[in-house]
Amino acid sequence: MNVQEIMQQMTLEEKAAFCSGHDFWHTKAVERLGVPSVMMCDGPHGLRKQEGEGDHLGINKSIETVCYPTAAALASSFDRDVMRKLGEALGQECQAENVAMLLGPGLNIKRSPLCGRNFEYFSEDPYLAGEMGAAYVQALQGHGIAACAKHFACNDQETLRMSGSSNLDERTLREIYLPAFEAVVKKGKTRSLMCAYNAINGTFCSENKMLLTDILRNEWKSDAFVVTDWGAIKDQAKGVAAGLDLEMPGGPNATGEEIVEAVKTGTLDESDLDKTVLRLLQFVKDSVEQRRPGATIDRDACRKLARKLAGECAVLMKNEGSLLPLKENQKVAFIGEFADKPRYQGAGSSHINVPHAVSALETAGNAVIYARGYDAHSDVTDEAMLKEAVETAKKADVAVIFAGLPDAFETEGADRDHMRLPDNQNELIKAVSQANPHTVVVLHGGSPVELPWLHDVPAVLCAYLGGEQVGAATVDLLYGKVNPSGHLAETWPIRLQDNPSYLNFPGEEGVVTYAEGIFVGYRYYDKKEMPVNFCFGHGLSYTQFEYANLKLDKDSLTDQDTLTVSVDVKNIGSVAGKAAVQLYVRDVESAVRRPVRELRAFEKIALQPGEIKTVMFTLDKRAFAYWEPKCHDFFVESGEYVIEIGESCRDIRITQPVQVEGTIELPFTVTVNTTIGQLLKHPKGKEIIGNMMRSSALSHVDQTDSMGEGSERMMQGMMMGIQLGALVSYGRLTRKQLKDLIATLNA
Ligand code: GLC
Predict the structure, then answer these.
(1) Is 79 a catalytic site residue?
(2) Alpha helices in 480-561 (DSSP H)
(3) Residue 722, in any domain of the structure
(4) Is there a contact between 513 and 173 (Cβ–Cβ < 8 Å)?
(5) Percentage of the chain with pLDDT > 90?
(6) Residue 487 Cβ contacting ligand 1 at under 6 Å
(7) 667 belongs to a structural domain
(8) Statement to judge: residues 707 and 602 lie in one domain
(9) What is the Cα 83 distance to its own chain's centre?
(10) CATH assignment at residue 596
(11) 3-class DSSP assignment, residue 371
């Protein structure tokens, strides 16, 4: 299949029509030229393949298959290998089901806990999200199945997602909302991206040239094709000109006549259309060539994998008095409907048709006693259920409450109204923990919740939405068959009002302003030194780890070098466990506002009791850089940085300073509005100011005396804040002198 030749043989009408789908899940064939149709389906944590009439929200049944942990859980594993295993399993299944592309991973940033789709996204931290996404994409595509990184970009809420605009500054876009996509493009080599429904600063993603061409293609050098989110197209001809390739779902009315019209009237350059058609033909060609006819899938093996992955993701948030793991001889009560009917996935386009989700109750069997405790479809307390639950808890040595967000509380298509658990669950937890001080809470949900009872409960295990095997995995974790090793990929604030997006979520009239800028998640809470329930990166284990011998291969470097970091990690406990070693970088002093620290590397390592392993990291320029709008690039300022190794952003165990020299000089254009203070930072500024100080140009003593007790601080402030233009008004320079001065400085 020679894509160039085929494209040249296609008529304008055929090319135009080819840019829209055949139906909900298939590309158009071009029978005349032997171009087949290929299928794409949702992911991202299972295969939602609709046999009959397709729809994009899972209303019509899809094939029965395996549902894995969702992204919110997967990210908590802090383990790229977890993502690789998932990507491989899904790649194998897509081959068996003749699906050419899987619509995932979801990479949007968790700006607010209220986003209804947070379960489908990885993190508040773009580096973690990008690394997990890239590992998944590499593995999936290793099986010949295209990934589709979504939703590109700034689709960080569900409210008015199809018509709204996310408004944010350049630095915030580049440092927070694009890097995960950048990693999946550059490292994961994703074969496609799905452009989001929303606009960015008023320009819809489906026709956003800056996003789809300037950044994606020209800067990131990607040859990926871009598909719309389902129904995201606004003006298809404008979209193609901006770098969009495929409108989905397309269907019988999507004949491409707009494109034909635009080419004929000259508003769309046919060469742009040809690039689009070539990218789509290349996708079909790759899919055909990498097709493995006869591939099969062993779904029992997949279920075993789903159970293992869920065990890697759950986060042991609290474990006072080592209440966990449970002992076999303890009398244990499982309380809460989710023990019997686990909540394990989210509603919407990612919803997988699961024949049977394994519950903790069926896994534990007769080893436990049970009480339903609440009705998951209500948030009103049922007094009889509550009473029965309390009585049951009293009979047990340990009461394990399975709580969390019901389906109705978080879903694609709608944001959450608040951050609370259902009232009946909070009441149950309070009552049971009063009846039995040995109470454990197991949480299910795709996003943080408020924990009013946290101080009354000695142990909390967060399973997130852990996939169809979450019940079995939870029992493995509760009884210590698996040692919890998950770490939070997002902050759990004490109350919603503490969240940095609180005043600007979900926006008004379809416009949401990211006023918090780069200060998202732990970048905000740490900068404000604000207490939280559980911080980013937090996670306990049934063992403990010690960190020593932090070594850097150099104590100073430039932004063109790399820095190799090594640290020894030892398991000092009595059981095997896994450590999520996190490396943060802190810029000690900065000319711009920067977070206290930022995650720049991580590794998950398994250690037997007493075992020591040396973990190595390699840092490049990006570990120290921030996005500088003055040069429209990532920029490293010279100075001291600190390499920090820890088990969360607030549990730093060992640090080492390092000097970094930035080799890029920022453009400095002097204008009449440049202040004396700014001028002192100009390469020639100091000398010029010195001369001016010696001349009468800056002598202000007489004036400030007349302003009363001219304090040094006032003098300093007044002087540094004078803009050059004022010197003419103060009679210190003539207009010509000022003009010559500016010309000299800009030479
Ligand atoms: C939905 C989702 C997207 C999904 C697509 C197809 O609206 O936003 O994630 O892949 O449509 O179902």
Answers:
(1) no
(2) 522-527
(3) yes
(4) no
(5) 90
(6) no
(7) no
(8) no
(9) 14
(10) 2.60.40.10
(11) strand
Residues 461 and 321 in one domain: yes
Residue 418 sits in the same domain as residue 488: yes
Task: Tell me the torsion sign for CA atoms 636, 638, 644, 650.
Answer: negative
Domain extent for 502: 299-527
DSSP state of 434: H
pLDDT tens for 418-445 read 999 999 999 999 999 999 999 999 999 9
Continuous segment of H or E residues that includes residue 8: helix 3-9
Atom 8 in ligand 1: which residue has the minimum CA distance?
A: 229
Average pLDDT for 445-450? 98
- Is 570 near ligand 1, meaning CB less than 6 Å away? no
Give the end of a domain, one of 634, 661, 688. Answer: 661
Same domain for 656 and 565: yes
**The tokens 């009063």 sit on which residue?**
434
What pLDDT shows up at residue 708?
A: 57
Percent of the chain whose predicted confidence (pLDDT) is above 70? 97
In this structure, how many other beta carbons lie within 10 angstroms of the beta carbon of residue 303?
21
**Cβ neighbours for 729, distance < 8 A, ≥ 6 positions apart:** none
Q: Give me the amino acid identity at 426.
A: N
**557 Cα–ligand 1 center, Å:** 45
Q: What is the number of structural domains in the chain?
A: 3
In a domain, 101, yes or no: no
What is the reported pTM? 0.96
Name the CA dihedral angle for 647, 502, 625, 80, rounded to a multiple of 10 degrees: 40
The arithmetic mean of pLDDT across residues 495-522, rounded, is 98
Edge-to-edge strand list for the sheet holding 199-200 = 203-204, 199-200, 165-167, 511-513
Q: Are residues 594 and 712 in the same domain?
A: no
Could you tell me if 640 and 496 lie in one domain?
A: no
Alpha helical stretches, state H, 243-341: 257-265, 270-289, 299-313, 337-340
Classify burial at 711, counting beta carbons within 10 Å of its beta carbon; exposed 0-12, middle 13-18, buried 19 or more. Answer: exposed
> 597 in ligand 1 pocket by Cβ < 6 Å?
no
Q: Which of 349, 351, 352 to mutate to test the pocket of ligand 1 (most atoms within 8 A of CB)?
A: 349
The pLDDT mean for the chain works out to 95
599 and 506 together in one domain: no
Q: Which whole-number Å values give the CA distances from 248 to 44, 91, 351, in the listed order?
A: 17, 22, 19
* Res. 701 pLDDT band, cuts 50 70 90: very low
The candidate with the shortest Cα–Cα distance to 143, out of 84, 221, 223, 82, is 84
481 domain residue, yes or no: yes
319: domain CATH number is: 3.40.50.1700
Going from the C-alpha of 462 to that of each of 106, 306, 404, 408, 613, the distances in angstroms are: 21, 17, 9, 19, 28
Minimum-distance ligand 1 atom for the alpha carbon of 161: 8
42 CB under 6 A from ligand 1?
A: yes
| CB of 349 sitting under 6 A from ligand 1 | yes
Question: pLDDT tens-digit profile of 254-308?
Answer: 999 999 999 999 999 999 999 999 999 999 999 999 999 999 999 999 999 999 9
Q: Is 511 in the same domain as 553?
A: no
End-to-end CA distance of the chain: 57
- Residue 700: pLDDT over 80: no
Taking alpha carbons only, the member of 133, 136, 148, 142 closest to residue 292 is 142
**End of a domain among 618, 634, 661?**
661
Phi-psi region of 505 (alpha: psi -120 to 50; beta: other; left: phi over 0): beta
Q: Which of 79, 125, 156, 229 is catalytic?
A: 229
Q: Which two tokens stand for residue 678?
A: 């700014």
Read off the pLDDT of residues 20-40 as tens digits, 9 standing for 90 and up.
999 999 999 999 999 999 999
